[in-house]
């Protein structure tokens, strides 16, 4: 059987492709290359260029590659942009998913894995977020992920697909420098960029009700995200009635101040000043996963720690942004 991985040429998708192919699975990638890059794909992995909104294309790819399972990673993922362009986000993330599910149901695809996000929880008021913690997304982005989970579950029940929605916490790191994150939208690359420009990294708020006053998150290595997909793919293959919703996290909180300190150390900018900036609208004080359910269901747990994430992300950053000559 073949797995179709949408968004497989992107940052997270290419790590999923790597994990699945190394795990012996056959894959085909569907990617519109809006943010993806074919150079991220291992040799021999077929790439079909186009959008999940193109029903004719999706039908052809499912048929020609004998696809029996889908890992749907392709999506728009910037929270701020989703506030400005909600209709675009709903179209890409929800209508795109609906189109894909319709094609999957018609083609008899029996397994569907969906990339969800901790953004579905919004501002959780608990120490560890379990999958039973109420969902209350704070942005159109988070809404599209929650609506996506509902679509996936309902389609799975009605059309006999085994399904899993995987809620990613804060993804960082890279398997190697070439697979590094090309975007500068999250804490780690944003700090790298400021340091490289000789500007102090910004900490958005230090008066939260957390031990050091800065926001606490659960950072997870992208290779761990990828290995969780392989574990979930195998589970769906063995269990045709699976309908899973799982956090992918480490269950360990790290504060922004701790992350910035680690980044200064790993990047060698140990003398750099740090600047406290105003709080960023909509930031929850603490979002840390309970990683119990995924351990129980898939026997999966994270292997890498935050230092691994920052060190591998830094290598990827340096490859894309060579150090200025002195
Ligand atoms: N953050 C920060 N400075 C930056 C970028 C991010 O203090 O330059 C903080 C942000 O306010 C949040 C945490 O780092 O508390 C993680 O932010 P990110 O955007 O990476 O992920 P989020 O948790 O918002 O999805």
UniProtKB/TrEMBL annotation:
Pfam families listed in its UniProt record: Epimerase
Keywords, ordered alphabetically: Carbohydrate metabolism, Isomerase, NAD
Enzyme Commission number(s): 5.1.3.2
Protein's UniProt keywords contain Isomerase: yes
Pathway(s) served: Carbohydrate metabolism; galactose metabolism
Known catalytic reactions: UDP-alpha-D-glucose = UDP-alpha-D-galactose
A single MF term (Gene Ontology): UDP-glucose 4-epimerase activity
Cofactor: NAD(+)
Domain of life: Bacteria
Domain NAD-dependent epimerase/dehydratase: 4-249
Family the UniProt entry places it in: Belongs to the NAD(P)-dependent epimerase/dehydratase family.
Name this polypeptide is given: UDP-glucose 4-epimerase
Organism of provenance: Streptomyces zhihengii
Gene name linked to the record: galE
């Amino acid at each position: 059987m073949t797995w179709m991985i949408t968004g497989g040429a992107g940052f997270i998708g290419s790590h999923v492709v790597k994990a699945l192919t190394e795990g012996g699975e056959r894959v085909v990638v569907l990617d519109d290359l809006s943010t993806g890059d074919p150079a991220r794909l291992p040799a021999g992995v077929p790439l079909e260029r186009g959008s999940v909104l193109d029903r004719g294309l999706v039908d052809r790819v499912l048929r020609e590659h004998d696809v029996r399972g889908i890992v749907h990673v392709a999506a728009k993922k910037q929270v701020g942009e989703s506030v400005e362009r909600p209709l675009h986000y709903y179209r890409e993330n929800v209508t795109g998913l609906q189109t894909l599910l319709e094609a999957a149901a018609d083609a008899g695809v029996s397994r569907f894995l969906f990339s969800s996000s901790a953004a579905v929880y919004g501002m959780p008021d608990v120490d560890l977020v379990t999958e039973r913690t109420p969902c209350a997304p704070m942005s159109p982005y988070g809404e599209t992920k929650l609506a996506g989970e509902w679509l996936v579950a309902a389609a799975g029940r009605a059309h006999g697909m085994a399904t899993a929605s995987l809620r990613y916490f804060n993804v960082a790191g890279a398997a190697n420098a070439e697979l590094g994150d090309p975007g500068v939208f999250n804490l780690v690359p944003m700090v790298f960029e400021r340091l490289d420009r000789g500007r102090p990294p910004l900490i958005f708020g230090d008066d939260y009700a957390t031990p050091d006053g800065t926001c606490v998150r659960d950072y997870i290595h992208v290779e761990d995200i990828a290995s969780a997909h392989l574990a979930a793919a195998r589970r769906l293959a063995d269990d045709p009635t699976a309908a899973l919703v799982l956090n992918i996290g480490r269950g360990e909180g790290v504060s922004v101040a701790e992350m910035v300190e680690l980044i200064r150390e790993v990047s060698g900018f140990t003398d750099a000043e740090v600047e406290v900036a105003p709080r960023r609208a909509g930031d929850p004080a603490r979002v840390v996963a309970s990683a119990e359910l995924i351990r129980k269901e898939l026997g999966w747990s994270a292997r890498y720690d935050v230092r691994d994430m920052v060190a591998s992300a830094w290598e990827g950053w340096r490859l894309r942004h060579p150090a200025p000559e002195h």
